[in-house]
Amino acid sequence: MLSSKVNTSTKMYGVIGDPIKHSKSPLMLNRAFQEMKINAIYGAFHVETHQLKEAMEGLRAFKLGGLNVTIPHKVEVMSYIDEIDEGAKVIGAVNTIVNDNGKLVGYNTDGIGYVRSLKEETELDLTGKRILILGAGGAARGVAYALSGESPEHIWIANRTTERATELAESMQPYVQATGMGISDITKINNDVDLVINTTSVGMHPQVDYSPIPSLFIKENMVFSDLIYNPRKTKLLSLAEEKGCQIHSGLGMFIYQGAYAFEYWTGKPAPIEAMKQVMEY
Ligand code: ATR
């Protein structure tokens, strides 16, 4: 039992969100601390929006080592911390806070976690690739920004609401060549795309029977990736697999966003294999 080893030197970490009961982060991060023999524990805190400011004061007063931040606090929490990393500023959301001797620094590890998972699990070299991102919400923004660091040739962002896609593409211009479009316009780029990434909620449990794009768009030479990890294999990934495409599921993103948080907190490499094992990856 972890608790038998807790003492006055134990560093404390956790995740805040509302709701929080479903979170798998405590399981994964406690396993990581244990594997690396770090005297630390990780809990889950149910913090409601009206208590967010107090929660951040508590983090300072209790001198917690850091926190992960999940829905619905990723944007508002930025008002209560001392410094925000460049990437998190561009994305406009923080999911990891490091307590650096009293200075609270915010990062966003979702996008970079996703890209590390994609690269390690597909062995894909993203340099010069032509990428289609489906969706234009917060997840798409994090992924697009992280991908821009990999020197792709072009990123198209296609969304049900065209305006959001155009806005997101425009805001990515300083970092990468990007174009926004309506989802029905993707037929125009059908022969130009190497990698398709779904960031929409289409296909998420329980609406497992839906794909965000028609099966006709899927070509054998494309790689397909879905941020959704429940179900593990979405309708989109099943259709792509049937056509012989390489596929990549969203559970890796969850593991690697946690791995980056672990690394920011401890300065040590995250024990990826142990984390994958406990997540039954
Ligand atoms: P997140 O932070 O997970 O990205 P979000 O900001 O709510 O969440 O974005 C959800 C994304 O899924 C959006 O791109 C949304 O499209 P709209 O901008 O048109 O709303 C997309 N999405 C959600 N439900 C959808 C559906 N039924 N069909 C197509 N796109 C959908």
Automatic annotation (TrEMBL):
Residues 123-202 form the Quinate/shikimate 5-dehydrogenase/glutamyl-tRNA reductase domain. It is an enzyme of class 1 (oxidoreductase). This is Shikimate dehydrogenase (NADP(+)). The gene is aroE. Involved in the biosynthesis of the chorismate, which leads to the biosynthesis of aromatic amino acids. Catalyzes the reversible NADPH linked reduction of 3-dehydroshikimate (DHSA) to yield shikimate (SA). Pathway: Metabolic intermediate biosynthesis; chorismate biosynthesis; chorismate from D-erythrose 4-phosphate and phosphoenolpyruvate: step 4/7. It comes from Chengkuizengella axinellae. Homodimer. Shikimate binds at S23, K24, S25, T70, N95, D110, Y229, Q257. The keyword Iron does not apply. It catalyses: shikimate + NADP(+) = 3-dehydroshikimate + NADPH + H(+). Its EC number is 1.1.1.25.
